[in-house]
Write a structure and sequence with these properties.
Structural class: mainly alpha
Largest sheet: none
Helix content: over 70%
Distance between the termini: 44 Å
Shape: globular
Radius of gyration: 18 Å
Number of strands: 0
Length: 187
């Protein structure tokens, strides 16, 4: 059903189908295909809202400030709900049932990503908490330097340093370090 929902671009339904699958695998972990379907579902659901939030964030029309703030608040509520949903699923089902290193890193990367998405729009203590949770999740993930999931993790970690911590130097250093280690291993 999740594949059908994906083909129809009905990502909210795809999320529902994949949540059901994920909650039934307490003993065994998801297959690579199931894991990717879950990731695609959430990425599409959250991606549309993140784009909407960024668009509203960039508007500077003073005539409609109150309407824009209300709309942005609505989007932020939806973003929080989506992030909280996948983070709960990761914490209660997926990470505990992951026995393979690749699966665990995949889920930790997702955990870091969704905390990073929260940090994009939260403020104050909530932003700090989301940023710290992102850092912990990304640092907990360990795979071979050339593994594609690790490379994706490193890319997202660099984005986190750049966009959330406002540290372009750390972002560039991380990217250079990952590139260097991958190059050394390959040669």
């Amino acid at each position: 059903m999740a594949k059908l929902a994906e083909q129809a671009e009905r990502y909210e339904e795809m999320v529902e189908f994949m949540e059901k699958v994920a909650k039934t695998v307490d003993v065994e972990e998801l297959t690579v295909e199931e894991r990717n379907l879950l990731s695609v579902a959430y990425k599409n659901v959250i991606g549309a809202r993140r784009a909407s939030w960024r668009k509203e964030e960039s508007r500077g029309n003073e005539d409609h400030v109150s309407i824009i703030k209300d709309y942005r608040s609505k989007i932020e509520t939806e973003l929080s709900k989506i992030c909280d949903g996948i983070l709960n699923l990761l914490e209660t089902h997926l990470i505990p049932s992951a026995s393979a290193a690749e699966s665990k890193v995949f889920y930790l990367k997702m955990k870091g990503d969704y905390h990073r998405y929260l940090a994009e729009f939260k403020t104050g203590a909530e932003r700090k908490e989301a940023a710290e949770s992102t850092l912990v999740a990304y640092k907990s993930a360990q795979l071979a330097p050339t593994h594609p999931i690790r490379l994706g993790l490193a890319l997202n970690f660099s984005v986190f340093y750049y966009e959330i911590l406002n540290s372009p130097d750390r972002a560039c250093n991380l990217a250079k370090q990952v590139h260097f280690h991958g190059f050394i291993i390959q040669n």
